[in-house]
Here is the input.
Amino acid sequence: MATRIITVAAAKGGVGKTTLSYELAAALDGVLVDMDWDAGGATRMWGFDPTRAARAPLLDALERGPGGTPPRLKRRANQPSLVPSHPDLSASRIDADLVADCLQSWAEVWSEPYLVVDTHPGANPLTDGAMQAADLVVIPVVLGAREMDALEAILADFASYRLLLVPTMIPPIPPRRFVDRLAALADGRVAVAPPISEHRWLRRRLRRAALVRQPNPGVRVRAAAAEFEAVAASVKEACDG
Here is the structure.
């Protein structure tokens, strides 16, 4: 089966995008390509400090183009395989079409079942290219007024893409008006995954191993991992549908 490219995108930060990307890549036994250059992203979560590295493998590979050697994957037990980000990505002038071509070319070389791309929030060529290459665009959704407004704009702008909405950071009692608004925006045309609860301890946790791959998980880790596994199952279903 050809590699499925899953791009996780959001209009703004703070919506659980990076954690979702990280756990999806682990749950899907895929590669995580980190195109979010912010310091608090998946690369640091994995345990790699790009500022201490002599090279920027992702940026170098993008500059070589789709015909060049793809970046080497970093592997570690209980974590997704990683192509690390680098701060210099923020100043890169790489065309969106080139990003898309590179991702599709690398997917063929790596021959992994899934390639999950974590993107920088908002519009930029790296995110645009990752979306162009995607078999599925996953959008984390927070149930709030401004977030719902942003989602409405996203659904209008990205109507040509295959989308999966993932409600994230959901409180024990979700605000009914926003639940209803999400249902109205999806309107049976856009798939909605099972929700991810508001696990506040995740923000404080210095994590390395993915929740879905914890060797000896406690009760709350098992509960959170089950939610991410359910979203991964929705990703598979959306890709095969």
About this structure: The chain has a mean pLDDT of 92. DSSP finds nine helices and seven strands in the chain. The two ends are 15 Å apart (CA to CA). The CA atoms of residues 52 and 113 lie 31 Å apart.
